[in-house]
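Key idea: predict the complex, not the pieces.
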Amino acid sequence: QVQLVQSGPEVKKPGASVKVSCKPSGYTFTDNLIHWVRQAPGQGLEWMGWVNPNTGGTNLAEKFQGRVTMTRDTSTSAAYLEMTWLRYDDTAMYYCARDPRGWYFFDYWGQGTLVTVSS
Amino acid sequence: DIQMTQSPSSLSASVGDRVTITCRASQDIHNYLAWYQQKPGKVPKLLIHAAITLQSGVPSRFRGSGSGTDFTLTISSLQPEDVATYYCQEYDRYPSFGPGTKVDIK
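Result:
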């Protein structure tokens, strides 16, 4: 069965960087886009962008351009989200999610990685 | 950017009631709309895509309708396990979520 397993919770200071991993299984890694979506505590869902595991190409929401990098490693079948210059309002649950058809909706989600930015 | 709105923001209904949630897009998104259910402390779950297509394994009491700018998610007979926040999401351009509708049992 399809699963996306993410790395564990992170606590970072303002200005630091964080890298979150997402390791899908149960399908061919390079067949589907991986999106990243975040959710601040008690808030709604916010799309951040996608990485194409086949080509390495990315498409980031304008808000995150310049501060977020999305990559993949085909040798380990893992996708990564890296965010720099963390701010307090980056505290959120970060989800990776699979795009079933390249249509920008999400059929399987990772369990989420809580990133807390605190001094 | 396409803006998504949902109404109501929350509702409380009895078990067995018919529940309707409305989602509106700021411009025509054709039928590029998905609905997700997020139970408290859990991961979002895809219920419906292409406005009306039920995802495999989702109970048939969930139904999506609409096209263009106005969409509806209907739960035909509310069950206790349906307590959750429901989000619509457009994917005509870039993914954009509505603010959510919280559903409780009265």
